[in-house]
Amino acid sequence: MFYAALLRFIRRPLVLGIIFASSLTYCIVSFLKEGTNKSMIYQDVSMQHKPFVWRTLQEHNETVDIECRNSVQGRALIVDDRGYVCERTGIGKNGCCIIEAEDTSRYSCQSCNEDHCCIIYEYCVSCCLDPKQRNMLQVVLSKLTVEEHVLVHSLADDYELCLTKCRTSSHSVLHENSYKDPGHKHCFGSTPAETKMES
Amino acid sequence: MGSTHCIKFFTLYLLLKNITCTQGNSCNGTASERIEYEYTTDIVRSEYIITFTGYYMKASRENYVSAALKNAGIKNWTMVTRENRAKDLPSDFEVITLNDNHKAALDALRDHPAVRRVTAQRQVQRTIKYINEDDCQSPECLYAGWRQFRRRSRVLNSLRKPHENDGYSSRKLLRTVPRQITSVLKADVLWSLGVTGEGIKVAVFDTGLSRNHPHFGHIRERTDWTGEKTLDDALGHGTFVAGVIASKADCLGFAPDAELHIFRVFTDNQVSYTSWFLDAFNYAIMKKIDVLNLSIGGPDFMDHPFVDKVWELTANKVIMVSAIGNDGPLYGTLNNPADQMDVIGVGGIGFDDRIAKFSSRGMTTWELPHGYGRMKPDIVTYGSGVRGSSLNGGCRSLSGTSVASPVVAGAIALLASGVPRQNLTPAAVKQALCITARRLQGPNMFEQGHGKLDLISAYQFLREYEPQASLSPPYIDLTECQYMWPYCTQPLYYSGQPTIANITIINGLGVAGNVKHVTWHPHLPNGLILSVSMEHIDIIWPYSGWLALRFSVLESGADFDGIVEGHINVTVESFDVSFRQKTRNMTLMLPIRARVIPVPLRSRRLLWDQFHSLRYPGGYFPRDDLRAKHDPLDWHADHIHTNFRDMYLRLREHGYYVEVMGSPLTCINTSLYGALLLVDPEDEYFPEEMAALKKAVDSGLSLIVFADWYNASLLRHVKFYDENTRQWWIPETGGANIPALNDLLSIFQVALGDRVFEGTFTLGGHTMYYASGTHIHSFPEHGVLVNAQLVDQGQQIMSGGKPSGNAKSNLPTVDVPILGLLQTDGETKDYSNDTMDKLPKAGRLVVYGDSSCLESGAGRPCHWLLLAALQYALGGHVPTSLKEAASKHRDVHIIPSELPQRAEGGRLHAYSRVLAADGSGPRPIPECEDISPLVASPVQAPPAARTLAPRHHPTDPRSIGAPETEGTEPAPRAWRGAGVAPAKQRSDSEEHSSYSNRALMFIAISAIIYCTVIFWKRYGRKMKRRKLISLAT
């Protein structure tokens, strides 16, 4: 009885039409999606579509009991995710720069030039984290996503964007085996480093 | 132009050395490859093969031999037993060992009627390698490829010829290859403890990997950086490398449960760019990779973006493992990035525990000419005939350091999963591998590094690891042969150029650190004569640094003969976040032992000019042999301990002491030396140096020059297009810088010409090969000249490189002056019959036009010529071999030639140590470096043990315990993440989502079909009816 009614219901032209239309749309959309996936990013990675987060100044400031991420690699300096640069010895147990330490500075653009290229990596990251750079970084990010770049998909927030953007990359080299600018090689601007000719 | 003009090429290391017996060793240009046999034979002392006239049983053979030897009265002999299945069958030969009086015994044996002949026992080793026609050395395919030269990365193609292991049946010279590499290294012991590589992220930078390969279970990610729109491996290199690390089936890998991250950075044509690597490396940092395998490399250690990036990776706690290269057995052939001090550079050995012939070796050459190379490779492991995954899902055997590198990377991934996470820094792992490595008997430290990988001991070491710093090598025993070669070959003496040891500091205390202080403690009573000066890197980063020690003897030890000992204490300081917020100090003791002898005679001391040698990378400096077009760059450093190693050994055998000049000639007291060797110099000379040389020769220093080709138009001709940098490369000099050399030699009225000759000739009873050399253009009347019949190679190349062919006789040969002997201040004559005091006061000059024959690996070495030249230069005695060859007429102008001109628009000044960078001529002469010695604080100490090498006892595989973590959940990282947000819960792999996608799609498609069918059923009939109606009307 119930079964027959259901059957009759879904045999109605209108219902059939809706099912047909929605299924067709789904098919077309997913085919298109797969197609663009194939041509744009042919990468076999586990995509966790983490939304990109612009952290607010307040989040930058959450200190005391939180733990910081920091740039592990520095020769002498370390930058944490709040934008503080400090000496290696000025790192607290939670991975944050100790703000009270003498050499700690925030959003420091030391060694950087007007093209947003810096000599020292840690200052590049710190400078890049400055909320004043937000607008420019948004342009940078939109440009990046256009490029079929697997790297961009794994970025989670502005700190990761700055860490990644400041590293030397394929945009930093001239003739493959030399830097475009051996001095200011860490850049976070929207334009890649200018080729600097030695005398 | 600011770019350093140099070529970058990576090579994938895969060398096939299948022992296959196939005919065909002619170079006929039709076959794409051929097989070349290589024999090395050694006479086995005191063993002889007796061949009989017929086949006899063992007893009768023995009777014959004993009867023959009894007659000759020889009792001291034994028969070599041959344990094989033929021993019970009649044989026609016997091998015996004679202990004394060989000659009488052999005569007696030969006289015996049943003996046909007696021959010395030879040990024959035969290796067969595939040679691609492109690499053909024979004259038939001589010059064809200069302009088409396309970097060395092509080599992989030719060598990479799949041959399944089970496809051949031939004799093996190596010991039987074990089935599984993992069981040889006892990885199964760790597997049985539940250590399987779980939770360790291993990155493979290679040619990709197919998703559906049956051997792999945990391919976490595959990314392509080449833009080829594929992730699959078409070459088999990446599959093999990944298989050695993590294969789960058939030919097992070391860490079957490790997470594989496949980075495809080589195209199917083996093209690769630095920029691809940079982006891929950035992604690897982002993904917090634990172990990264690079079975790639190239000679360009001056590719700063690449080198800096590798350091950056290490600083981000990525353990870098790389293959040392397949350019052995030549020395000075280490490849980047394996030669970086932070990377674990892996060399290859065979299953017979001997260094594989292909494995690159020798010191690093970054530090030349002022310093001395570091010890590399770091460790060696099996790299010959290892079984791994093949493209089609089966297994294959391959050889190469490409194979050895993933063996180590896989081993690290395995042991890493069984030890606490905080112990997993690049420094700790490198220390674990190096300190526990088993040293091989025989090879020196520049061949084997710390020795052979011992997986179980390394595991145990890392389990109990305490953060520490260590030194590599851990001691300096300048007397210990073979391991401390070449240090042990030449003792120290007063006034000699300092002997330099370049120590690598591996700092497990933290990413960055510094050398706080260094103290020198000579051991009383003799140690005080040794002077030690020290230089070190400012900041030890990343996890590694260098410390260079220069040893010299004080004047008080000028007559001392014996052993001196002492030790150096190095304090390393590091700030460590994970260690109670404190700066940690560690003092390391470096034992030192050296042999000191009284100062040798002046006529025994030679000075080797390293300062004026320029090489690739930096600029395009071509090889000295124009036929070596498969490897056209001069990159072996031209040092007596690298590619001139064989020459150095010969000189030492003949009692000469060779010292290296790493600074301008003006910094050297030339009155101490008998002769200065200028071999293959590429740089210019300071005017001050020329004046100093003139003065030195006038007061008795002799000069020996081995020059090489130079011709400005030929330089332009041998340019080639480099795909990697997308630029044309023109050589900066010829084989040697003849214009500069001519300036130097002009003080003796000697000049070399600009024509290039090649050919085989006989000189003094030796067959010589003149591989692209220059000739003598002008020479003083009173000099002695030697001519040879040679072919004009320059003209041949310029005229389009017609093959000279085997029919050498067809080619016009010219009588060319190639060797000149000159007494600089008087008649050149033989002074051997005169007394020493009649010998002219000024030195002598010997000039030869080709230097390739002095290099190791030369087909026809001319070390004898160098020795003969030295005999003349140091004693004034013209060897008879040269005296006879000297041409009667001394006319150097028998062939028309010009003086070579410096190439216009040349960029030598960009690489020169002498010319100013702006091209305005020579720069001001640098100040002679004078490093003040360390203050000696002597201590009383008993003589050290026979060997200074620290002993690390191997761990018994049965004694090791299971990891505390039990391999269930990886322990949390103790370090603060490298910038990436704390890992979120991973949604259950994308495989899951792709399945659900497919299911949804299936449902949607069936719904569409269903709807269409229903519509058709209902309205199709109506339509038909309507159609009929319309037709009817």
From TrEMBL, chain A:
GO cellular component, one term: Golgi membrane
Family matches, as PANTHER family: SREBP REGULATING GENE PROTEIN (PTHR13481:SF0)
Chain segments annotated as transmembrane: 12-32
Protein name: SREBP regulating gene protein
Family statement: Belongs to the SPRING family.
UniProt-annotated location(s): Golgi apparatus membrane
Source superkingdom: Eukaryota
Pfam families for this protein: SPRING1
Keywords: Glycoprotein, Golgi apparatus, Membrane, Transmembrane, Transmembrane helix
GO biological process: positive regulation of SREBP signaling pathway
From TrEMBL, chain B:
Sequence ranges assigned to domain MBTPS1 third in this UniProt record: 472-598
Keyword Calcium attributed: yes
Signal peptide: 1-24
Pfam families reported for this sequence: MBTP1_N (PF23001), MBTPS1_3rd (PF23094), MBTPS1_4th (PF23090), Peptidase_S8 (PF00082)
Domain annotation Membrane-bound transcription factor site-1 protease-like N-terminal: ranges: 43-122
Keywords, ordered alphabetically: Autocatalytic cleavage, Calcium, Cholesterol metabolism, Endoplasmic reticulum, Glycoprotein, Golgi apparatus, Hydrolase, Lipid metabolism, Membrane, Phosphoprotein, Protease, Serine protease, Signal, Steroid metabolism, Sterol metabolism, Transmembrane, Transmembrane helix, Zymogen
Location(s), subcellular: Endoplasmic reticulum membrane; Golgi apparatus membrane
GO molecular function: serine-type endopeptidase activity
Enzyme category, top tier: hydrolase
Catalytic activity: Processes precursors containing basic and hydrophobic/aliphatic residues at P4 and P2, respectively, with a relatively relaxed acceptance of amino acids at P1 and P3
Entry superkingdom: Eukaryota
SUPFAM superfamilies recorded: Subtilisin-like (SSF52743)
Cofactor: Ca(2+)
Transmembrane segments: 999-1016
Name of the protein described by the UniProt record: Membrane-bound transcription factor site-1 protease
